[in-house]
Amino acid sequence: MVVHRGSPPSLTPSPWLGAPLEQLPTPALTLELRTLRGNAQRMRERCRELGLRLRPHVKTHKTLEGAALATGGSRRGIVVSTLAEARFFAAGGWDDILYAFPVPRWRLAECSELAQRLQEFQVLLDSPQGLEMLLQNPLPNGKRWLVWLKLDCGNGRAGIRPKDPEALGLARAIAQGSPELVTLVGLYAHCGNTYGCRDIGDIQAIARATTVAVLEFVTALRQAGISCPQATIGSTPSCSHPVPEMSQLTEVHPGNYLFYDLQQTQLGSCKPEEVAIRVLSRVVGHYQHRRQLLLDCGWTALSLHGSDQRGPEGCAAIEGHPRLRLVGLTQEHGLVEDVDGELDFEKFPLGTVLALIPFHACATAAMHPVYFVHDAGKVVELWRPVRGW
Amino acid sequence: MVVHRGSPPSLTPSPWLGAPLEQLPTPALTLELRTLRGNAQRMRERCRELGLRLRPHVKTHKTLEGAALATGGSRRGIVVSTLAEARFFAAGGWDDILYAFPVPRWRLAECSELAQRLQEFQVLLDSPQGLEMLLQNPLPNGKRWLVWLKLDCGNGRAGIRPKDPEALGLARAIAQGSPELVTLVGLYAHCGNTYGCRDIGDIQAIARATTVAVLEFVTALRQAGISCPQATIGSTPSCSHPVPEMSQLTEVHPGNYLFYDLQQTQLGSCKPEEVAIRVLSRVVGHYQHRRQLLLDCGWTALSLHGSDQRGPEGCAAIEGHPRLRLVGLTQEHGLVEDVDGELDFEKFPLGTVLALIPFHACATAAMHPVYFVHDAGKVVELWRPVRGW
C-alpha cells in the first residue's frame, strides 16, 4: 500500500535551473556535480579492481538521479532502507532492489507486490520467524522469495551472529527448506561500527574482521552443502579504504560516499575536496556586543547530527573560514563566532553567503525537499528525494 | 518566488482514514485529537483570562488544520518561521501573518508580494539596515510595511537589546521616519532561554524579566512620543505558566503547546497526559544475547533532539513502559533495552506496537510528511505539513 510518496516533480521547469549559486534562496542544499561524479567513479573503479560488484545504498540521497550516477546508469542493483524508497525506484524503472531491513510481517503485502512486479526484489531475514512468514505467504506464479541472510559481525544492530549455533540452521532452512518458494541469495553484513573508529587502521581492522567472519560462514555453508552465491558487506568508511580480503566477497554496498561529509573527512574516508554537499546560508544579523553573526540556517536545514560531542560546532564546518564556529542552532537560526572571540563584521556584511559542510550528509539530506546540483557555479539539475516509509 | 511547496493533498481519500491505530504503517507520527483540542482550548482560556490575544506560532506543526485548531477557526493571527509557511497559510485563506525572522533582503520580493496580497503581512526588524531596505522598496498603492521591532531581552539570538542606546532611535525611525511607507506595529520578544530552566519558578522569572524589559521599553517609547500599539512575548514554557505581568502585553505567541512533548513535560509546561504527539513503532527483532529489541524507528522518524545529554535515551520515552530505554538510533533502526538489563521478550513479540513520546515535537514533526490524527483509537484526519523555505 502506497502511503507517502516523495514530492512529485514540478510540472513547470524550475526558475533556478541555470541560476548562479549565489542567487539561490537560502538555506539551500547544494551538490557539486563533478565531485559527485568523481566519488561515483572512484568507488566503481575501486570495486572493479577488487573484482567486486558495487551495489550502492541509496539511503543518503534517495534520488533517481543519485542512483543513476552511482550505478553508472545501469538502473540495476541498489540497496534501499525503506519501502517508500523501494516503490520510488521501482516506479522510476529500477530493478534488482535489495530492501535491507528485517522484512516486517505487517508490510509483507507491499513486499509481495514489489517481488511480483520486479525481476528481482530481494529481502533480508535474520530470524526463523521471518522465514516462516515468507513460507506462509508464497509468491504466486512460481516466483521465489529472494532472501539475503543478515549477519551481525560485531555491529550489534540487526542480524544473526555467524558463530551463533542457530545461524547455520537458519541458512540451511532458507536455502533448502522449500526451494520452490524461497532462495538464499547471499549473506549481508553492515559494518556500521566503523563509524566509531579513530583512524583508517581501525576501520580496516573492522572491515577485515567483518569480511573474515562472513567468509568463514560462507565456508561453513559450503562444507554443509548449502548454496549461497553472494556475500556483501558495506559502510562508506570500510569501502573507501578496502582491505584485500574484501575481494573474496561478491559485492559491497556503501552509500554515503556519493556525497561524503565532515564526519567522513574526520574518519579519513575522503579528502575535504571530495565532499560534494554543502548547505548554503546567508548572514542575516550582526550582534556586535556578542561578537556573533546570525545565519538563516537552523537545525531544519542541517539536523543536529554531530552535536553530541561538541554541541552545534560539531554539526558543520564553515567552508573557507576555519576560524568561524557554529555556536548555536535553533529551528531556523544559526549563530556563528570567531574561535578567538574577535570577529571582523565588515568581512561578513548582511547577505554574505556562507557554505556549511555538514557533519552527516544522510541526516542533512533528510531535511531538504530539493537538492540544487551545480557545475561551474551554476545550477544544472534539481533532485527531489523520496521521503517517508 | 515559490521554491518548495509542501506535499500537495492527495487526490484520493487516504485508505488510512477510519483505520485503527494498530493498523498504521510504522513509523507513524500520531496526534490525539482530544488532547490537541484540550491544549488549544486551555491556552486560549489562559490568554483570555489575562486579556491577551493568542497569536499561535505554527512552526511546530506547519499545517492548516493545526492552525485552525490553535486560532479557534478564525484563520487570522499567526506567526510563521519561514516564507514557505507564509505562502502556504496565505494560500490556505489565512491572514494577519507575522513572519518572525529578520526580513532578508534577497527575499524582499516575496515579502512584498505577500504584503500586497494579504490585509496584514507583518515583518520583523532588528537593525537600521532592515528598515532602510523597506524604505527603499516601498509597497505600491499606498500600502505600508507593517513592522514589529524584535527585542532581545536575554535570549541572545536575533533582536536589539532594549537597553541598547540605539534601540529607541531605531523604534523612532520605524514609527516616525516615513509613516506613509512603514508602520511600527509592536515589539516582539522570544524568551527561548526558558528552555534552559530547571523548574517553573525559573521559567516564570525569565517570563517576568522578559515582560518587564518589553514593558519598560514601551514606557520609554510612550515618553518619547512614539506610538507602538502592540507588545508580544512567546515560548511555550512561559505561556504555559504565565506571570501576572504578562497581562500588560497585548498578545503572546507560543507554538509547541499544541503538541507538547517530553521536553515540555520535563520543564513542567504540561502534564504527561497533555502530550498529543507519539511516534508509533513496531518491534522488528529480538536479540536475546544482547537483551535488546529492534524497532522500526530511527532518527528519520524521531530526530536526534534530546540526545545531547543522555544519548538516544534522551530522544524519547516509551509510553507505558518506564523500564524500557532507547539505547540506539540509526537511520531506520532503534534499539531498546530494559533499564535493569533483563527483558521479557515474550511480552514484546515481533509486531508489538510501541508508542514513543518524542523529546522535541518541533523536530520530530519536521521528519514526517503526514501526521495521523486520531480519536477513540481511530484515524480521523491526515495532516500534511509544509516544508522548505
- Uncertain segments of chain A are 1-10
The general outline of chain A is elongated
Terminal CA distance of chain A:
11 Å
Mean pLDDT of chain A: 95
| Total count of helical runs of at least 4 residues of chain A | 12
Strand content of chain A: 15-25%
How do you describe this structure in short?
Chain A is built from twelve helices and 17 strands. The first copy, chain A, has 389 residues and is α/β, with parallel strands linked by helices. The longest helix of chain A is centred in the middle third of the chain and has 24 residues, at 200-223.
Description:
Two copies of one chain form a homodimer. The first copy, chain A, has twelve helices and 17 strands. By secondary structure, the first copy, chain A, is α/β, with parallel strands linked by helices. In chain A, strands 1, 10, 11, 12, 13, 14, 15, 16 and 17 form a nine-stranded mixed sheet that branches. In chain A, strands 2-9-8-7-6-5-4-3 form an eight-stranded parallel sheet. In chain A, β4 (95-102), α4 and β5 (121-125) form a beta-alpha-beta unit. In chain A, α3 packs parallel to α4. The longest helix of chain A is centred in the middle third of the chain and has 24 residues, at 200-223. Mean pLDDT of chain A is 95; it is low at 1-10. At the A-B interface, β10 and α10 of A face β10 and α10 of B. Chains A, B: InterPro entries: Ala_racemase_N, D-amino_acid_metab_enzyme, D-ser_dehydrat-like_dom, D-ser_dehydrat-like_sf, PLP-binding_barrel. Chains A, B: Its cofactor is pyridoxal 5'-phosphate; Zn(2+). Chains A, B: It comes from Zosterops lateralis melanops. Chains A, B: It holds the Pfam family Ala_racemase_N.
